[in-house]
Design a protein that fits this description.
Blueprint (H helix, E strand, L loop, with lengths): L1 E3 L2 H16 L7 E3 L10 H6 L7 E2 L7 H19 L4 E4 L3 H12 L4 E4 L11 H12 L2 E4 L2 H9 L7 E3 L3 H15 L1 H7 L7 E4 L4 H4 L2 H14 L4 E5 L2 H9 L2 H6 L4 E4 L4 H10 L2 E4 L2 H10 L3 E4 L6 H5 L3 E4 L3 H10 L20 H11 L6
Length: about 375
C-alpha cells in the first residue's frame, strides 16, 4: 500500500508506483487521503504523471493540523484493516505521511518512508515534526542523499534500517522534462513570456501567506522586482485566499508585469521553471528542481531541509523580508549552461525508484 494525499507526494511517488507496477506478483494498493482535493492540486497530477486509479479516496479534506491528521489516521487505519497490506509506503512529510505511518505502526504493519532523513532543524515547521516522527517509527528508511543518511545515523536509528537510494524526484523530473520542453514554446507564447526573462514565484507555507506582515513583505518585493522583470506567480489556494482577504490582490493586479494565475499542473510548472531566469519560493521540492535544472533559487525561509543546494551556491535563504528578497532575486543570474540533472549531484542521476523497490523485495521484513 502506498498512501498519498498532497501534490508533492504525487510527484515523488509516481516513479515508485510505476516501478512497482512492473513487478510481477505484486499487488499495489494506492490510497489517496484527499488532503489536497482541488483539481489543480490533485487530479491533474494523477493525469499528467499517469498514475493508476486509487483503490480508495478517503476525502480527508482541510482542517487544522490536529483535525486533518486525526481524520486521515482514522480512515487510513480502516483502509489497512480492510485491505491488509504487507507493507505501507509513506512518501515525504505531510500530515498524510504522519497519519499513515502512525496507523500502520499501531497495527504492526512494516513501514517504508520515502525521502527519509531530510531535516531543516526548525521545529516550528509542521513538516519537520511529521518527518522526524515518521522516521523513528518506520521499518525501512529510504534516504535521498548522503546528508539525509547521516541525519538518521546521528539520531540513533540502526544502520540496517537506512538505505541511501537517491531522490525519486530526479526520476520524475527526467521523465517529465522532455514533455515539458515540447510544450514550452506554446506555453510561453500563451503567457507572453520570453525565455530566461521572468521570475517564477510560489508561496504556500502558513508562516508566509497566513502572516499578514510576511505576506505584505512578499507582495512589496514582487512589486519592486516587477519594475525590471516579468513575474509569474501561480498562487496556491491558501495564498490566493489571503491575498484577496487582505486587499493585496488589488495592488498586484494594477501591475501588468505580474501574472497572477491559478496553480498549474506539474508539466506546466517544470516547463516554466526550465525557462525562468530565477525562482522565488518557499517550497522544498522546487528548491531541488531548480538546483537540478540550473535555475538560481531564492527561498523565503530561514532554513532548508536541502542544504546541498546551499552548499552548491544554487540557493539562497531569505526570510519574508522585502529588501532581502529584492536584493537576492535581482542579483540572481542564470549562468550554468548544463543541468545537474544529468551530472553527478547529491540527489543522484536517477534510478532511486528501482533501488527502493529492489530493497523492499530483498528485505526479510517484507513478506507478501
Amino acid at each position: 500500500m502506498i498512501v498519498l494525499g498532497a501534490r508533492p507526494q504525487f510527484v515523488k511517488s509516481a516513479p515508485v508506483i510505476h516501478e512497482l507496477l512492473k513487478r510481477r506478483g505484486l499487488k499495489l494498493q494506492l490510497i489517496n487521503s484527499g488532503q489536497h482535493y482541488d483539481y489543480e492540486l490533485s487530479q491533474i497530477f494523477f493525469d499528467q504523471l499517469k498514475l493508476p486509479p486509487h483503490a480508495l479516496n478517503l476525502q480527508v479534506g482541510s482542517g487544522s493540523h490536529a483535525i486533518q491528521t486525526a481524520k486521515a489516521m482514522t480512515r487510513i487505519e480502516q483502509a489497512i484493516l480492510k485491505l491488509k497490506p504487507a507493507l505501507v509506503l509513506v512518501p515525504g512529510d505531510t500530515n498524510t505521511t504522519l497519519a499513515a505511518a502512525l496507523a500502520a505502526a499501531k497495527l504492526t504493519i512494516p513501514i517504508g518512508h520515502i525521502e527519509a532523513g531530510a531535516r531543516s532543524f526548525d521545529m516550528t515547521m509542521p513538516e519537520e515534526i511529521n518527518r522526524r516522527v515518521t522516521d523513528h517509527i518506520s521499518t525501512m528508511l529510504f534516504a535521498p542523499t548522503k546528508n539525509a543518511e547521516h541525519n538518521l545515523q546521528n539520531e540513533g536509528i540502526a544502520a540496517g534500517r537506512i538505505f541511501q537510494v537517491g531522490d525519486t524526484m530526479v526520476d520524475t523530473l527526467r521523465t517529465v522534462l522532455p514533455t515539458a520542453r515540447e510544450s514550452q514554446k506554446s506555453l510561453l507564447e500563451k503567457m507572453r513570456l520570453n525565455k530566461q526573462d521572468f521570475l517564477l514565484v510560489t508561496a504556500h507555507r502558513p508562516g508566509n501567506v497566513d502572516n499578514e506582515e510576511h505576506l505584505r513583505g512578499i507582495v512589496n518585493a514582487l512589486l519592486r522586482i516587477s519594475e525590471t522583470r516579468r513575474v509569474v506567480f501561480p498562487a496556491h489556494p491558501r495564498a490566493m485566499h489571503n491575498l484577496r482577504s487582505r486587499g493585496f490582490i488589488r495592488r498586484i493586479r494594477r501591475w501588468s508585469n505580474i501574472s497572477l494565475t491559478k496553480p498549474l499542473g506539474y508539466v506546466e510548472m517544470i516547463s516554466l521553471l526550465d525557462a525562468a531566469s530565477a525562482v522565488l519560493t518557499d517550497s522544498g521540492g522546487l528548491q531541488k528542481e531548480a538546483y537540478l535544472l540550473g535555475v538560481p533559487c531564492t527561498t523565503m525561509r530561514k532554513s532548508t531541509e536541502w542544504p546541498e543546494t546551499i552548499l552548491a551556491q544554487a540557493n539562497r535563504l531569505v526570510d519574508a523580508n522585502s529588501q532581502k528578497i529584492i536584493r537576492n532575486v535581482l542579483d540572481s543570474r542564470r549562468t550554468r549552461t548544463g543541468m545537474r540533472l544529468y551530472d553527478e549531484n547529491p540527489f543522484s542521476r536517477g534510478g532511486a525508484s528501482r533501488r527502493i523497490v529492489n530493497t523492499i523485495l530483498s528485505n526479510p521484513l517484507f513478506d507478501p
